[in-house]
Amino acid sequence: LEWYEFAVYGYLEIYMERNFFRGSALATWLGFTATFAARPLGGMFLGVLSDFFGRKLAVVITGTGMLVATVGQGLLPTPRRWGDDSALGSTG
């Protein structure tokens, strides 16, 4: 199941390149590779957190983080909608 999102990203890359990365294939694939760095870092953080405070808190934080990230991605504006200001929404 984990690789499903990577397959979908690869399949939809051409559309995301046009709508969110202003035609830059390099920026699109750099966004993809960011997930490979975020997963181990998140695992280390949540592992330490669960060691000290228990698994329940780590699961709640994980679920909340996935919810916020999913809704945030769905609400990102495209350049067609906001023009050049749309890049401000996708920067951290």
Give a description of the structure.
The chain has 92 residues and is an all-alpha fold. It is built from 5 helices and no strands. Helix 1 packs across helix 2 (25-53) and helix 2 runs antiparallel to helix 3 (55-74).
Features:
single chain; 92 residues; mainly alpha; 5 helices; 84% helix; elongated
Order of helices and strands: HHHHH
Radius of gyration, CA atoms, in whole angstroms? 16 Å
Question: Structural class of the helix and strand makeup?
Answer: mainly alpha
Query: How much helix is in the residues?
Result: over 70%
Mean pLDDT: 81
Biggest beta sheet attributes: none
Low-confidence runs:
none
**Oligomeric organization of the protein chains:** single chain
Report the end-to-end length measured between terminal Cα atoms. 27 Å
Annotation, overall tally of beta strands: 0
Number of helices: 5
Q: What is the global morphology?
A: elongated
Write the SSE topology.
Layout: H1 2-20, H2 25-53, H3 55-74, H4 79-82, H5 86-90
Q: What's the short version?
A:
By secondary structure, the chain is mainly α. The chain is built from five helices and no strands.
